[in-house]
């Protein structure tokens, strides 16, 4: 396994430190919309949180996913991120959930947690920021308890806007590796079982009055293989 270069880790840290606290909430691109809920519901349904579970998220960012986890379940949430400034924003967002979460600045390729520590581990749009994605998956598996569940949500490289990000943004370059066969191969190589990798397709989250129509379109398009292949996101899950 290759050791990710310190220069590239520092670059990612600088990028997300600079972005911290500056994200605007857009109807289409923000994190408070129908599509964000679809992604998180998929993760929740797969991991099946129970009260008291210890759950780890790699790539906490500004705490959007953490907020949902803590609001709608009784878990103890641990989040790690390379960006200290992003974690500071997350800490302010989560202040209403005292004693139920822990945030740590860490490199996902070298986690500080003991083996077999967490009931579930997940990441959402984090893996493609890693120089060596399999290194991060290996760490996720190491800290996961036997029979624990793992979930990965990543941009589908073939979706047009994702191709643009991968071409023009250095921090998104490994989006080109986010393919179903690669996710399956990495999860298999990590020694996991019950592996599933699928396309997650959804249409725009706005305007709100058209959401019932979009729900119907999603249902139809999800049954058409050629359209489903161009989904915005990919979703992988497995059991240790």
Description:
- This protein has 240 residues and is an alpha/beta fold.
- The protein has one domain: Vaccinia Virus protein VP39 (Rossmann fold, 3-Layer(aba) Sandwich).
- The protein is built from nine helices and seven strands.
- It has helices at residues 6-19, 34-47, 64-72, 84-93, 133-142, 160-168, 180-189, 211-221, 225-228, and strands at residues 54-58, 76-81, 101-105, 118-124, 144-155, 193-200, 233-239.
- A seven-stranded mixed β-sheet has the order 3-2-1-4-5-7-6, sandwiched between helices.
- Strand 4 (118-124), helix 5 and strand 5 (144-155) form a beta-alpha-beta unit.
- The protein is globular and about 45 Å long.
- Residues 25-31 have low confidence and may be disordered.
């Amino acid at each position: 396994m290759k050791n990710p270069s310190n220069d590239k880790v520092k670059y990612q840290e600088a990028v997300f430190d600079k972005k911290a606290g500056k994200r605007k909430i857009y109807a289409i691109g923000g994190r408070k919309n129908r599509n964000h809920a679809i992604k998180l519901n998929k993760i929740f349904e797969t991991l099946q949180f129970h009260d008291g579970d210890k759950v780890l998220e790699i790539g906490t960012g500004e705490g959007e996913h953490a907020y949902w986890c803590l609001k709608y379940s009784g878990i103890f949430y641990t989040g790690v991120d390379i960006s200290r400034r992003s974690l500071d924003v997350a800490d302010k967002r989560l202040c209403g959930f005292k004693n139920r979460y822990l945030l740590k600045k860490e490199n996902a390729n070298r986690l500080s947690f003991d083996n077999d520590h967490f009931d579930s581990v997940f990441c959402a749009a984090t893996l493609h920021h890693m120089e060596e994605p399999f290194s991060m998956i290996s760490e996720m598996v190491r800290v996961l308890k036997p029979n624990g569940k793992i979930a990965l949500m990543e941009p589908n490289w073939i979706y047009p806007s994702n191709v643009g990000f991968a071409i023009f943004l250095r921090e998104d370059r490994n989006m080109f590796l986010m393919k179903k066969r690669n996710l399956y191969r990495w999860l298999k190589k990590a020694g996991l079982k019950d592996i599933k990798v699928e396309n997650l397709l959804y249409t725009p989250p706005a305007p709100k009055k058209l959401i019932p129509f979009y729900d119907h379109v999603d249902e139809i398009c999800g049954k058409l293989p050629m359209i489903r292949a161009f989904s915005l996101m990919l979703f992988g899950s497995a059991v240790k």
